Amino acid sequence: MMRQNISSDLDSLQELHLKYSWIPGSESIRPNAEIRQKKENYIKNMLTRYTSLQDFVLHKFFELKPVVQGDFINSRLQVPSTEISSARTAHRNDTNRH
């Protein structure tokens, strides 16, 4: 694990990004107008597919199973509260082992 101060210099950040992909690179820290527009478009598109930002995060990053809400034309993905409760219970059971 890397335990050190990280410089805010763009070149240093980019060098670290190339070595460790989870560290933001220079384009992520201070994105230009084109990159900002791409990010805004991504968020707008995502919000048309999911009921909320929470549903997107739960599905995309925590791999919880969404269900389709609404009719075919206006459908959006939503992670049901039962799925969230199941994930919490599973996590609690995994972390309480001694």
Describe this structure in words.
The structure is a single chain. The chain has 2 domains: 8-49, no CATH class; 50-98, no CATH class. By secondary structure, it is mostly helical. It has a two-stranded antiparallel ribbon. The radius of gyration is 19 Å and the shape is flat. It contains 5 helices and 2 strands, in the order H-H-H-H-E-E-H. It has helices at residues 10-19, 26-29, 33-49, 53-60, 81-95, and strands at residues 67-69, 76-78.
Helix content: 55-70%
Largest sheet: 2 strands, antiparallel
SS-derived structural category: mainly alpha
Major β-sheet strand ordering:
1-2
Number of strands: 2
CA radius of gyration is: 19 Å
Mean pLDDT: 87
SSE pattern:
HHHHEEH
Tell me the quaternary state: single chain
- The domain count comes to 2
So what's the overall shape? flat
What's the SSE blueprint?
Layout: H1 10-19, H2 26-29, H3 33-49, H4 53-60, E1 67-69, E2 76-78, H5 81-95
Antiparallel strand pairs: 1-2
Which key terms come to mind for this protein?
2 strands; mainly alpha; 55% helix; single chain; 98 residues; two-stranded antiparallel ribbon; 5 helices
Short synopsis of the structure:
By secondary structure, this protein is mostly helical. It is built from 5 helices and 2 strands, in the order ααααββα.
